[in-house]
């Protein structure tokens, strides 16, 4: 593949002062039928196409700082030791876009691809719009947009042998999994999060357009949390089963948080230092039968109240669960099959950092479960193994999609996403 | 059909002080395997299911007025001469859910169905949660939720002959239409709009559950505008082509606005007085080729600037377009094929009230075009006929879905949605 198109993109990205329109077909060529495949010749006969107004460049003030209220102009820096979108506050809207590498995308092409992605991420998240952005007005209000990039096993292999961490592979299978290819795997992940779906739609489209000569789309999942401004401040999100979801989660403020999620290997996968391992699971909910269960039954299933997520052993949401508590009959207050009991681990090395979102589309509802950790085999898998073996909640949830990605380390201004991988 | 299920729902809705859980299977019956089809017997052997905590009723304080910031607690009254969600401010999120009547749903069943819908609409939009709501916590923050109900031709026929307005039928076909059954037609429309997708997901689910013994799902479309708090205040929405979309729209403040959208027939369709006619068109955008066109070309296609939606003949967004203006070569500044010229009508009886939303899912992007009017044949069709015949924008947009609904008149507290139709 000669990659003419992406060389152009790259040129636009690199060229200082390049005209924003330089990547597009010339309007006149288009209107005179010069652009193949657009086919407006028939219309042309009607004339009047020649009254060209003064050219209005794409870069003309689209990102002027706004002084109005609201959060549209808010941007989160994409630069840092770690990528944005992992420990930054969860956004209201999320889109996972997974791609498969084209066969001809070699290491040199990956270099170009990551250079392009880096420029797009910098432009889109800052609201300045990348140079080649065809609708800069749609990029002007990033609404706390973050774009987080991960790589699958095949991409790491494409760079060269011996770089892959052991966990960068499909997860071991679980008894109850009903995985579909439609929502699983992938070589490249572009994870977009923002408080506005328009910002995500536009950013996803720009990146997609710019990397299409290297990859083809594999799967997409869109999710949401309660939107910004609608949530009760200080509350943990609720999933579509009505449960408070995500209460037990290590805080970035905890002193050993680094050892929970940030890769720190010094071995053959040292390129990943500062990155993380992401597990994404699409968990379908069977709401029709779930809603047949009365509230006490649903609360026993979880081990927490529905009203505020407090443990059935008392207190409020963040009170520690007393797994030893017995009721007046001497039976455990938190049943042996309760989700919280099965998910609970006394081993601190099994902690994961969760970041879920609801999905509800195409007649299916559920949770896009996502967790970050150093090593899914050590951290996520033992937890999921316990849930897979016994968890009453399994009657109403089914894992239908699964993917594992190495989330690239962060990058500074002037650096490039994926540089350590490609340099290794 | 005996409609046992919906009679139950109805009973719950009607019974003063009915226990919220009364419609659900008893937890103990479930845990002892009494509920068919749930199949948790295997788990049961593990015991410990009997430590029932104090019952926590569904109605327990879910809708307590919140005193925090944000708009989560905002509710829009569903009562009035007209239904909410038509001229109320457009929400960030929208979901159209169209249903087909089951063959056995007769007029008496429709009475019951509309009684149930009325209760659901009242409860869900107020944040109080309907009595049978299984996750009242998800209903507690309606975020300006509106639920607007419309009926298709088959439903009106089911009530009895001779009640149907002439326009309540599939639209006449247009040359360029590529309509798919997947997004067209329908007997009942439930249109949900809110500033929070969680409020919509929950409300859609509750209504769906409650009316499933009368109807089956036909199609669903989800859309969005820039989210509340992200938009630049006072700006008109942008579609995914980057255009300011919806500038020319009659305002409810105009003195003849009533004659644009509210039905006022005194004939056989007098039951619709205070209602409206809704046309929904799913318009796919070909963004790949659209983005090949440079900005002047795209602006000529529309007749407006991309930066702020001002006419190419000058001024700002809301300046009237000067269709007679010529450039220095004597050619029209607004080309003969420009979208704005073709959409423009000098006949005030052709006005429509638009209310669009973007969609971007399943690899397809576009606009869910919606317009309200007294009579689509008189108002929407001539406009669409002109666009169908000639509009350069057609190179990049295709109508792939179409539906027409009679939007029911509003209702007061104590009244029922659809009462005039069913009484006629």
Q: Which stretches of chain A are low in confidence, meaning pLDDT under 50 for 5 or more residues running?
A: 1-67
CA radius of gyration of chain A is 24 Å
Distance between the termini of chain A: 24 Å
Q: Could you say which overall geometry of chain A the principal axes of the C-alpha atoms support? A: globular
Write up what this structure looks like.
Two copies of one chain form a homodimer. Chain A is built from 13 helices and nine strands. Chain A has about 425 residues and is α+β, with helices and mostly antiparallel strands. The first copy, chain A, has one domain (about 75-424). In chain A, strands 1, 2, 3, 4, 5, 6, 7, 8 and 9 form a nine-stranded antiparallel beta sheet that branches. In chain A, a hairpin with a 2-residue loop joins strand 7 (about 355-360) and strand 8 (about 365-375). In chain A, about 55% of the residues are buried.
Write out key terms for the chains shown.
homodimer; 424 residues; alpha+beta; nine-stranded antiparallel β-sheet; 13 helices; globular; disordered N terminus; transmembrane helix (chains A, B); membrane (chains A, B); metal-binding (chains A, B)
Task: Indicate the topology.
The structure is a homodimer of 424-residue chains.
Chain A (H helix, E strand, L loop, with lengths): L3 H11 L12 H5 L9 H4 L48 E9 L5 H20 L9 H4 L6 E6 L1 H7 L28 E7 L2 H15 L3 E10 L32 H5 L14 E10 L1 H4 L4 H8 L36 H5 L9 E2 L2 E5 L2 E10 L6 H10 L7 E11 L11 H5 L1
Antiparallel strand pairs in A: 1-3, 1-4, 2-3, 2-9, 5-8, 5-9, 6-8, 7-8
Helix pairs in contact in A: 1-4, 4-7
